[in-house]
Design brief:
The complex is a heterodimer of chains A (about 600) and B (about 300). Chain A has about 600 residues and is of the alpha/beta class. Chain A contains 18 helices and 22 strands. Chain B is α/β, with parallel strands linked by helices and about 300 residues long. Chain B has one domain (about 5-310): 3-Layer(aba) Sandwich (Rossmann fold), CATH 3.40.50.970. In chain B, strands 2-1-3-4-6-5-8-7 form an 8-stranded mixed sheet, sandwiched between helices. The longest helix of chain B has 14 residues, at about 45-55. Mean pLDDT of chain B is about 95; it is low at about 1-20. The chains are: A alpha/beta (about 600), B alpha/beta (about 300). The complex binds thiamine diphosphate and iron/sulfur cluster (SF4).
Chain lengths: ~600, ~300
């Protein structure tokens, strides 16, 4: 193995306790300073169905779930039947032979059967097979027993010494059985001497909010965004963040707007369906000029769609949310760590420009997990609340304050309710500089135009503060792959694989979607020989957006909309097919039924 | 990372501390523009009563936040010299909840119409009462959609002919009073814009009350509702205080709320003071003053602990 790169699949039914061995392995990896990427394929069911967790670890950053599995831990027959065929020479399958029968495996696949009855005759319950398998697996990948012992001890601390001892005994039995009966991998799990952490995208978003100084968080539960609510609810009290579960998403966004107007940094998160309910209010935040941040964690739509599956299908929804034109910022973080960093950046922008900001995440990022160097989790971020006046008690001359004073930047200083001397009314109706309505009795086309232009001028200021996208990879590439948001990692990995196949490709990933750095993109693409756009949706939502903003028409498209994320080979196959002239649009078929 | 300005400022701005200013009059609460309501609209009466109540409560304009939705009645914040938010149709109560929790020192008064509050905003209305958010909600109930030029509203009486029911409405109206009592509102009253003096007292009581106060106010629409006019109510309203009603008697309150016909009760139906409001129940607000004025960010120790659990 040139580069250490290990992928483990754990499969079973919901309720079989897949998360625990997954967590334990993840902890063991990051504590050895190894990078990690985990993706859990699951269904909207509490018990049953089929869950498949892929954990991949390496000394280098792990960019995606990858293309192959080295170890399979099937916890039931179903999982064995679905995945055994994917295992190739050198791989190992660990399973409870009492209950699970392998089919025919490819040559060179080691079938490691153990017997729960034999190894843990006196212990009841299904979970025991997980612990045995875990012990055996660690032995196969050359890990001493100690790290497992440490983590099991922490894991079962609350359940008391007897439970700890029982689990350690079972794990040990699996470990020793593997020593005696299975052939270990030709490597030992490295230890880089560093110590990493690992977290889920939703945790990253929530922690980013905490770092940004969010004081008010509200939500209505909706997969795959609920993790943000759960983190906030868990930590809100200790961090001084008010957390509310609201009656519906219309209430959520409006409540957040109310809190934001009163002076809190306010945030909410939902998925596409909830976001749809928020549309009108997002426009109202722009109209009243109130900064608020809303996260849309995309799942496969339309309608209820596939609640537990990923997609990048809400781009046009968020771009078009609400009636009329209004300033908004839309950003799609590119990695889980980027989720953490993006939230404070966005808050500074929305505070400065007094408009709504939208974060487009998706299930892949939000429920995916990744290692992170703790030094990257800097909570001491710069905070810029923009122009808020009257805080020192220095009131203006009576009635001189104009909430919506016309300005070149489009920004008018705001005053928080409660401040003496700055009385004003904010309105969702069109209004003049004083905030007085010009929508009913005294419509005034000139004032309307001026106020509309004032608001929209903010977009220029915002664009000037956004980092333009940069090309990654060789300048003289045959092909440029363009993606946005969560697909960054898998496209980078596809690039490496293309290089191995003799295809020189480079990569442009777009994070800041609105406003768009059209000119920078145009100048980059003008250098590129062939443009292929990769996106996790049916209609090429970004491709259509790019064409509308820049006139650029891509030569090829790789699209996936079956609910599962791209694997690197899907992109590689697509690029090859497009370069060979076989098609302009390549839609991979997901090989595994998960 | 903190906002030092905001921190200092929070000390100097508590509502309790603000009693030293000159005594204000109704004129001081006059907004930047005059109402554009039709001459004779009931909403004028509510506006006058509200301003009078604010004066009598000795509140300063900056201590008050009025929040409305959309409708003729929802234009009210623009007519009052106080902080205001003229939000979307039906959303005032949700916005107001956010603002009240973000700064629980503000007196937050929600105003709007029956369509706005009981129709499109019905879900927020229900849950805000259940939560007992410290808001005073004044509904100018004209039993019609005024701003959209006369269609039935959730409180329109059965049989009412409007532009959307030219042959008479076949639907039953809701009665907001028992609805509010059942849903958990802790101060529930009905007023009439033809009885401004009583209305002032009801509004003052609502603002003083810690918790959710609903004051449903008959506020006749002179343009689109000929059935429920000033004269109609004037001939029928009867003050609860004169009927010997005890507003702490739950069953009596419900019974009185259903009276409709020759005698329609107005006044305070229901009040309970034993339930804390949401902000009082919220541990995050227990100390440190309004959330909106607190320094931002996470302490280094807290940050360390958050990262530690991920390792
Ligand atoms: C989402 C939405 N739907 C519809 C409207 C149109 N609309 C404005 S006010 C109103 C009803 C007004 O009735 P009510 O709330 O009772 O207030 P009134 O005008 O009678 O005071 C409607 C339907 C709107 N502004 N927004
Ligand atoms: S239409 Fe009716 S509710 Fe609206 S202002 Fe005129 S009288 Fe008042």
């Amino acid at each position: 193995m040139a580069k250490f790169d290990l992928a483990i699949g754990i499969g079973g039914a919901a309720g079989q306790g897949i998360a625990t061995p997954g967590d334990i392995l993840a902890r063991i990896f990051v504590r050895r300073g190894l990078h990690l990427n985990a993706y859990n394929a699951y269904q909207s069911i509490i018990r049953g169905g089929h869950i498949f967790l892929t954990l991949r670890t390496s000394e280098q950053p792990v960019l995606s779930m990858g293309d192959k599995l080295d170890v399979l831990l099937p916890l039931n027959q179903d999982s064995m039947d679905r995945h055994l065929k994917l295992m190739s020479a050198g791989a190992a399958v660990l399973y409870n032979g009492d209950k699970i029968k392998p089919g025919t495996a490819a040559d060179g696949v080691q079938l490691c059967s153990f017997s729960v009855k034999e190894l843990a005759p006196n212990i009841k319950g299904d979970l025991v097979q997980n612990t045995i398998a875990l012990g055996a697996l660690l032995r196969l990948i050359g890990v001493e027993f100690k790290p497992l012992e440490e983590i099991l001890t922490i894991q079962f601390k609350r359940k008391g010494a007897a439970v700890i001892a029982e689990n350690l005994g079972v794990a040990r039995a699996g470990y020793d059985y593997a020593t005696a009966h299975f052939k270990p991998f030709p490597f030992s799990l490295p230890d880089t001497g560093k110590k990493f952490a690992f977290f889920e995208g939703n945790q990253a978003l929530a922690m980013g909010g905490a770092a940004a100084g969010v004081r008010f968080y509200c939500a209505y539960p909706m997969s795959p965004a609920t993790g943000v609510l759960h983190w906030m609810a868990r930590h809100g009290r200790e961090l001084g963040i008010m957390v509310r579960q609201v009656e519906d998403e219309i209430g959520v966004i409006n409540m957040a707007i109310g809190a934001a107007h009163a002076g809190c940094r306010a945030m909410c998160a939902t998925s596409g369906g909830g976001f749809a309910l928020m549309s009108e209010a997002l426009g109202s935040a722009a109209m009243m000029e109130i900064p608020v941040v809303c996260i849309d964690v995309q799942r496969a739509g339309p309608a209820t769609g596939v609640p537990t599956k990923t997609e990048q299908g809400d781009l046009w929804q968020v771009m078009g949310a609400g009636q009329g034109d209004y300033p908004r910022i839309i950003v799609a973080p590119t990695t889980i760590t980027d989720c953490f960093k993006t939230v404070p950046e966005l808050f500074n922008l929305v505070d400065k420009f007094q408009c709504p900001g939208i974060i487009l995440s998706d299930l892949l990022l939000s429920e995916g997990r990744s290692s992170v160097d703790p030094s990257e989790l800097d909570f001491n971020v710069p905070i810029d609340r923009g122009e808020i006046i009257g805080l020192n008690g220095d009131g203006p001359p009576a009635n001189a304050y104009q909430r919506y004073k016309l300005s070149e930047s489009g920004i008018s200083p705001r005053a928080l309710p409660g401040t003496p001397g700055y009385i004003h009314v904010v309105a969702t109706d069109e209004h003049d500089e004083d905030g007085v309505l010009i929508s009913d009795e005294f419509t005034n086309p000139h004032k309307r135009q001026a106020m509309h232009e004032k608001r929209m001028r903010k977009m220029e200021g915002i664009l000037s503060l956004l980092e333009p996208p940069k090309i990654f990879g060789p300048g003289n590439a045959q092909v440029t792959l363009l993606g946005w948001g969560s697909t960054q990692g898998v496209i980078r990995e596809a690039l490496e694989k293309l290089a191995e196949a003799g295809i020189v490709a480079n990569h442009l990933q777009i994070k800041w979607l609105v406003p768009l750095h059209s000119e920078a993109i145009q100048s980059i693409i003008s250098q590129s020989k062939k443009l292929i756009i990769v996106e996790n949706n049916y209609s090429g939502q970004f491709a259509r957006y790019l064409r509308s903003e820049t006139g650029i028409v891509a030569a090829g498209h790789v699209r996936k909309y079956d609910g599962e994320p791209f694997m690197p080979h899907h992109i590689v196959d697509g690029v090859k097919a497009i370069l060979a002239g076989a098609s302009q649009k390549y839609v991979p078929v997901h090989e595994v039924m998960v | 990372m903190s906002l030092p300005m905001m921190k200092e400022e929070s000390k100097s701005r508590s509502v309790e501390a603000k009693r030293e200013g000159p005594k204000l009059t109704v004129k001081d609460f006059k907004g930047r523009v005059d109402p554009d309501w039709c001459p004779g609209c009931g909403d004028f009466g509510l506006l006058a009563a509200l301003k009078q109540a604010l004066v009598e409560l000795e509140l300063q304009p900056h201590e008050v936040l009025t929040v409305s939705g959309i409708g003729c009645s929802s234009n009210l914040p623009g007519y009052v010299n106080a902080y205001g938010m003229h939000t979307l149709h039906g959303r005032a109560v949700a916005v107001a909840t956010g603002a009240q929790l973000a700064n629980h020192k503000l007196k937050v008064i929600v105003t709007g119409g029956d369509g706005d509050g009981y129709g499109i905003g019905g879900n927020h209305f229900l849950h805000t009462m259940r939560r007992n958010v410290d808001l005073t909600y004044l509904v100018m109930d004209n039993q019609i959609y005024g701003l959209t030029t006369g269609q039935i509203s959730p409180t329109s009486i059965k049989g009412m002919k409007t532009k959307s029911t030219p042959f008479g409405s076949v639907e039953n109206p809701i009665n907001p009073i028992p609805l509010a009592i059942a849903a958990g509102a802790t101060y529930v009253a009905r007023g009439f814009t033809g009885q401004v003096k009583q209305l002032v007292e009801l509004i003052k009581g609502g603002i003083r009350h810690r918790g959710f106060s609903l004051i449903d106010v008959f506020s006749p629409c002179v343009t689109y509702n000929n059935d429920n006019s000033h004269e109609f109510f004037k001939a029928r309203v009867k003050k609860l205080e004169e009927m010997g009603h005890d507003p702490t008697n739950f069953h009596a309150a419900i019974d009185k709320a259903y009276l409709w016909g020759d005698a329609i009760p107005i006044g305070l139906f229901w009040k309970r003071t034993d339930l804390p409001s949401l902000d009082e129940l919220e541990p995050v607000l227990a100390e440190g003053g309004p959330l909106a004025h607190r320094p931002l960010g996470v302490s280094p120790e807290a940050a360390k602990a958050l990262i530690q659990v991920l390792m």
